[in-house]
Design brief:
The complex is a heterotrimer of chains A (100), B (481) and C (665).
Chain A (H helix, E strand, L loop, with lengths): L3 H21 L3 H26 L3 H31 L13
Helix pairs in contact in A: 1-2, 2-3
Chain B lengths: L2 H6 L1 H19 L7 H19 L5 E3 L4 E3 L1 H27 L5 H19 L3 H19 L6 H32 L4 H10 L4 H19 L7 H8 L2 H26 L4 H23 L5 H20 L5 H32 L15 H4 L1 H15 L5 H15 L3 H27 L10 H16 L4 H9 L7
Chain C lengths: L16 H50 L4 E11 L2 E9 L1 H32 L3 H21 L4 H19 L11 H31 L4 H14 L1 H18 L8 H4 L5 H10 L4 H8 L1 H4 L3 H23 L4 H21 L3 H36 L22 H4 L1 H15 L5 H16 L1 H26 L6 H4 L6 H16 L10 H7 L12 H25 L16 H7 L4 H48 L6 H22 L1
Antiparallel strand pairs in C: 1-2
Classes of the chains: A mainly alpha (100), B mainly alpha (481), C mainly alpha (665).
Chain lengths: 100, 481, 665
């Protein structure tokens, strides 16, 4: 049996990677993917804990999270499409008209 | 799902159902009759308000202890519903004028308000997360409602990405809390912590990340960066509504979760909260000094307000102070609500179609042509500074008193000094309106002007009965498991 | 929060708040409706309000006949901080009711006089709105003075004290646009206020000491605890009484703070009569008499009070001799007579002081009002005499300069006779009221303080002298200007109050007539430890002879030896050389104060204004503002509009919080 702590470490790694992705990538779609990775890191954490405590409730949580993530995908992509129409690019560093 | 469960969430359900129905009704409305939707949504909000009033005084949990109905929830729901009513008044003319008249806006607002109400009533961290997402997503959409205007789209994207980012932190925090206590339900968490069977590392981690997620919504430094840009880019009514409702919801969630579930970690968390509050007050006020755009100015001002609220929240762990904390926070939100809507109504009235009319200099001489609007703005500004006889004064007074009760003299001092600084940028607006020459035009539309006058009037008149209002805020009792 | 009235207080006593409220109602009515209903309304309302106040005081007087111990009537709870309680309560006892009767009675007569006087003023100088303003201030003064005398504690007394000070300022500067260079009247008002402030400072220190050592400011409480303090630390009580004396010298125009009173003559004559002769200036005397239980415990303080009073009396009398302005003579005379009263109070002869206060109110008010009548007559005469010519010397003509008068006996007979009665009363000629009251003071002095007796006796001589001089210069001899020649008697509304006051001046002695000692028995109930008075025929005879001597000398010099026939002629006493110049220049006290106090103070103010305020303080606040704006612009750089940096900020925040929490574990 793989110790649960390994899964937790993996979850942390995934989370950190996702955060780094948000910080370092300029393409909005990639940023979005990194966000999804962060959500999935939490999912992994939930499942690990559910396994650790032999509880079912946390596994159900994963479904909720996935639903929410899907809703966010819908919104996010719609926003990106709209921006692409105006600016012909999805480079988030170019979105800096509002500042100060 | 019993009737009692249904009743627990009835106001939110009413609003949700109404919002969804309106989305459907919108399909069948001809394009030139879209003006009915604000009216319909207003009725919906009023219905929600009525249901909420009918349910005051109840104290029960619902859906297996996942949501709760108590005085606190009733009180904050009232504030949220009043806020949405005001927002509808605010958006009525604006949407039509800026060619973004779409019924989605009102329907989304209702749904979002429902989400906020559920979050305030949440007794389970997952429900909290879901509700948070429920109210945030429509906000992302509403921020970007002005198609073709790059600032609006940019605001929406920034809000979305950063909002999702912080939601991920929040969710991770919930995960760790689950790992620490084996429960996501507040009741379960409380019993687990009292039982002593918790992993402190996970607990602290979870609490910290949860705090980060909620602090983002509350626009606390250093999680505030989205606020100025989003407030500036989003359409004015949406911003006005957001600045009030999201703060109320986030504060309420923060209060509920931390006071019920985490009083035991207060000793470790308090310094963190203190530093956050201090930073927020300082950064919010100092940055507002150098703003020229009125929407950005109000954004930083709301960041500063979050700082004051947090200041009163810092001593939440000391038993007697906690209830004072809650009462002071809720009381301040009342004043903040009225003052904000007065200010935002004036901003909406003065704004021009092409996005002009948003600089402070554009307010020059407003008092000459539109004395009512100018006075309303002045009352709002004065309330923000915290000068009697406005509600803002009493709000700040109670916040400071709570902070001092908690022994945080240094924080109260910072709060006082920054309040002093803030007088500059608030009064600058007043000076420009009253003493500089100019002929500013503003919309003479009835709902906006009515909102400005009613809100400002409430700020002024309610200030004469602060003790009754504070008593009311104190009746917002938290139901403990 | 109104206090519940105690059941055992007599219903008649409970009417006492109305002495304050009738004048207040009067002034509010005048404020609201005065403009609409005109002069007659304003004057009538104000006078009726005072009459009502007098009526209440009279009813209290009769009630006290049956219950002479009086009562404290609580009215409002005012201050309650911890153990310190100060309420607005009214003290009804023989002393306060005496003052109430004097204030409202004399005040009533002066109000009636003022309706006519101010009518003439508006007729001559225009601006009808003034009339209403005058009576608003006048009623306000009565209300404030009533608060002062009816106070149950030192703090309410102080409220009234300040209130009458304010009214004094408002009324002295009533013609604020007149006076030399268009500003002299306003400056006189300012001087009165500021000098009084110095005195008030002393009174406040005394109150603070009382609070510190007694914990209460009520008369009853203070007097009860005073003996204990006197036994323990008499120095504190001495300080208390001396600081209180400072306040008294301010309000009652004694040395060293008397300098405002002569300048206060810039106000209209009814103001001079009411405030600066009969009532406000006597507040200090009232305070000392009221505080007798305190002063009697500190003999050193009593000595100081006595000497201050006596020296002031003498000093002022010398100045009065050399003045030419008819009101200035009376002003210095007032200071001198106040000195008599203060000296009497210092000697412990409270009854004598109050007696003289009352009689002085009668005859000094009479003299001022009669002087006002004279001035009106001269002004009217001047207008009449120059009606057919347009002389440009119009503005230089001073209707108050006695050198411009003369021979008015035949032209203004009524005024002359009442003036004569007043002057004789002031000089202390039997059987007028002044004789009895002054004699009592002299007798009290003679018994224990011989030096004071001699000073006061000489002052009495000088008093008679300057009054005689004034009588001859104004009414006797030849007419010196055309204005005086054309003067006529004034209307009844002006002359009737004069007659009333003349009667009071003549018969006032009956108040404390030897044998019946009415006032003494009356005041005994409030002031403890009064020695029974006796009538000493020898002292009486000496004082009458001295007065006659003064009058006679004045008549001799001014009517016989060197009568003044021309207004440019110098005064016969000029041959006294340096002495005369000193007296005429008020011994240059004002100039002295200006040099040693005012000039250094102005220099300090200039210094603090320019280098300190503008240089340092403004620089600091300006610097702070600059700093915060710089900070704002610096922080702005962080908000660079780039999403990733915002996200970085969030991550840094999280990292900081987590590392702190982990490090703290």
């Amino acid at each position: 049996m793989v110790p649960a702590s390994y899964y937790l470490i993996l979850s942390v790694v995934l989370f950190v990677l996702g955060a780094l992705g948000v910080l370092l990538r300029r393409n909005a779609l990639v940023v979005f993917m990194s966000l999804e990775m962060m959500f999935n890191a939490s999912n992994l954490a939930f499942i690990t804990f559910a396994r650790m405590y032999n509880a079912l409730s946390a596994q159900v949580v994963v479904f909720f999270v996935m639903t929410v993530a899907a809703a966010e995908v819908a919104i996010g992509l719609a926003l990106m499409v709209e921006i692409f129409r105006s600016k012909r690019s999805v480079d988030i560093d170019q979105m800096n008209t509002l500042k100060g | 799902m019993t009737l009692s469960d249904f009743l627990t969430l009835l106001p939110a359900i009413v609003l949700l159902a109404w919002g969804v129905i309106m989305l459907v009704v919108d399909l069948f409305l001809p394009t030139n009759r879209k003006g009915i939707t604000p009216l319909l949504s207003g009725i919906g909000a009023a219905a929600g308000l009525g249901v909420n009033f009918a349910l005051t005084g109840y104290s029960q949990t619902g859906f297996n202890g996942m949501v709760v109905l108590d005085g606190f929830a009733s009180f904050t729901n009232t504030l949220l519903l009043i806020s949405s009513l005001f927002a509808i008044m605010l958006s009525y003319d604006y949407m039509r004028r800026m060619n973004i008249e779409r019924s989605e806006c009102c329907a989304l607002m209702l749904i979002s308000t429902a989400g906020m109400m559920i979050m305030v009533q949440a007794y389970d961290l997952i429900v909290l997360f879901l509700a948070l997402e429920l109210f945030s997503i429509p906000l992302y959409v509403m921020s970007g409602l002005v198609r073709g205007k790059i600032s609006s789209e940019e605001a929406a994207l920034k809000y979305f990405l950063l909002g999702a980012f912080s939601s991920a932190f929040l969710l991770y925090g919930v995960a760790f809390l689950y790992g620490a206590t084996m429960h996501t339900n507040l009741a379960g968490i409380v019993s687990a912590i009292q039982g002593g069977a918790v992993q402190t590392v996970f607990l602290m981690l979870g609490v910290a990340l949860l705090l980060v997620g909620l602090a983002f919504k509350l626009a606390v430094v250093p999680f505030h960066s989205w606020a100025p840009d989003v407030y500036q880019g989003a359409p004015t009514p949406v911003t006005g509504w957001m600045s009030v409702s999201v703060k109320i919801a986030a504060l309420a969630a923060l209060l509920r979760v931390f006071v019920i579930a985490f009083p035991s970690v207060a000793a470790q968390i308090s310094p963190v909260l203190g530093v956050l509050a201090a930073l927020t007050m300082i950064v919010g006020n100092v940055l507002a000094l150098v703003q020229t755009d009125i929407k950005r100015l109000l954004a930083y001002s709301s960041i500063a307000s979050a700082g004051y609220l947090l200041m009163a929240f810092v001593p939440y762990g000391q038993g007697e102070v906690a209830s004072d904390s809650i009462a002071a926070g809720l009381f301040y939100m009342i004043g903040y609500l009225f003052a904000s809507f007065a200010a935002w109504a004036v901003v909406a009235a003065v704004e021009k179609e092409d996005g002009k009319g948003l600089q402070i200099a554009d307010y020059a001489g407003l008092a000459r042509r539109h004395p009512w609007l100018a006075v309303a703005m002045m009352i709002a500004m004065v309330s923000y500074i915290g000068v009697p006889p406005t509600l803002g004064f009493w709000g700040k007074f109670y916040l400071f008193r709570t902070a001092l009760e908690g022994g945080l003299v240094w924080l109260a001092l910072i709060g006082l000094l920054t309040s002093l600084f803030s007088a500059y940028y608030y009064l600058r607006v007043v000076v420009v309106m009253f003493m500089q020459p100019g002929e500013t035009e503003a919309r003479r539309e009835v709902w906006v002007n009515l909102l400005a006058v009613v809100s400002a009037g409430a700020t002024l008149l309610l200030a004469f009965i602060p003790w009754q209002l504070l008593d009311l805020a104190s009746t917002a009792f938290l139901r403990f498991p | 929060m109104p206090l519940s009235t105690a059941n055992e207080i007599l219903p008649a006593f409970q009417a006492v708040p109305w002495v304050v409220f009738f004048p207040l109602i009067g002034l509010i009515l005048n404020l609201l409706f005065g403009k609409r209903f005109g002069e007659k309304f304003s004057g009538a309302v104000a006078s009726l309000a005072t009459l009502a106040s007098f009526g209440v005081a009279l009813s209290l007087f009769f009630a006290l006949q049956a219950h002479p111990e009086g009562a404290s009537v609580p009215f409002l709870q005012w201050i309650q901080v911890g153990d310190f309680v100060v309420n607005w309560a009214f003290r009804v006892d023989t002393l306060s009711v005496t003052m109430m009767l004097v204030v409202s009675g004399v005040g009533l007569l002066i109000h009636i006089y003022a309706t006519g006087y101010m009518h003439e003023d508006v007729r001559h100088n225009g601006d009808p709105g003034r009339y209403r303003r005058f009576f608003v201030y006048f009623n306000l003064f009565i209300a404030m003075m009533m608060i002062l005398v009816s106070a149950d504690n030192y703090l309410m007394l102080f409220v009234g004290w300040e209130g009458v000070g304010l009214c004094s300022y408002l009324l002295i500067g009533f013609w604020f646009e007149k006076g030399k260079d268009g500003i002299a009247n306003a400056q006189a008002a300012k001087k009165a206020f500021i000098v009084n402030r110095v005195g008030d400072f002393g009174l406040l220190i005394a109150l603070f000491l009382m609070f510190q050592h007694f914990g209460t400011l009520e008369f009853a409480g203070v007097f009860e605890q005073a003996p204990v303090l006197a036994a323990a630390t008499p120095g504190v009580l001495l300080a208390m009484t001396l600081f209180m004396l400072l306040g008294v010298t301010g309000k009652s125009a004694q040395i060293p703070l008397y300098v405002w009173l002569p300048d206060a003559m810039a106000g209209p004559t009814p103001v001079s009569a009411l405030i600066h002769a009969a009532t406000m200036v006597t507040a200090g005397v009232y305070l000392v008499v009221r505080s007798t239980p305190l002063y009697s415990l500190v003999p050193e303080a009593q000595t100081v009070v006595m000497w201050v009073g006596a020296l002031t009396a003498f000093f002022a009398a010398t100045i009065a001799i050399a003045q030419f302005d008819i009101k200035r003579v009376l002003a210095y005379s007032t200071i001198s007579q106040l000195g008599f009263m203060v000296a009497a109070a210092g000697m412990g002869a409270g009854v004598a002081a109050m007696f003289h206060l009352t009689t002085h109110a009668f005859f000094k008010a009479l003299l001022f009002l009669a002087a006002g009548s004279v001035i009106l007559g001269i002004e009217a005469g001047h207008a009449r005499a120059h009606a057919h010519t347009d002389e440009h010397g119009h503005d230089d003509f001073d209707p108050q300069d006695m050198r411009n008068m003369g021979g008015l006996k035949d032209r203004m007979p009524l005024t002359f006779w009442v003036y004569l009665i007043g002057a004789l009363a002031l000089s202390g000629i039997a059987p007028l009221s002044g004789f009895f009251s002054k004699d009592e003071i002299l007798h009290a002095a003679e018994k224990d303080h011989l030096a004071i007796f001699w000073i006061l006796l000489i002052t009495a001589f000088l008093t008679a002298f300057y009054m005689g001089r004034q009588l001859v210069m104004v009414f006797g001899g030849t007419v010196r200007t055309r204005a005086a020649g054309a003067a006529r008697e004034n209307s009844a509304i002006i002359t009737l109050p004069l007659v009333g006051l003349a009667i009071l001046s003549a018969l006032g002695g009956l108040l404390n007539f030897p044998g019946s000692w009415g006032l003494e028995h009356w005041l005994e109930h409030t002031l403890e430890g009064i020695q029974p008075s006796e009538f000493a025929p020898l002292t009486a005879l000496i004082s009458v002879l001295v007065a006659l001597g003064g009058l006679g000398l004045a008549y001799a010099i001014y009517a016989v030896i060197q009568p003044l026939t021309d207004y440019r002629q110098p005064d016969p006493l000029t041959r006294l050389g340096v002495l005369w110049r000193g007296m005429a220049n008020k011994w240059k006290v004002d100039e002295l104060y200006h040099a040693i106090i005012v000039r250094p103070y102005e220099a300090l103010a200039h210094f603090l204004a320019s280098p300190v305020d503008q240089g340092v303080i403004d620089a600091v606040s300006g610097g702070l503002a600059w700093l915060s704006v710089r900070a704002g612009e610096g922080l702005r750089v962080v908000q660079n509009g780039i999403l990733r940096s915002y996200a970085l900020l969030i991550v840094l925040g999280v990292a900081a919080i987590l590392s702190y929490l982990i490090w703290m574990r």
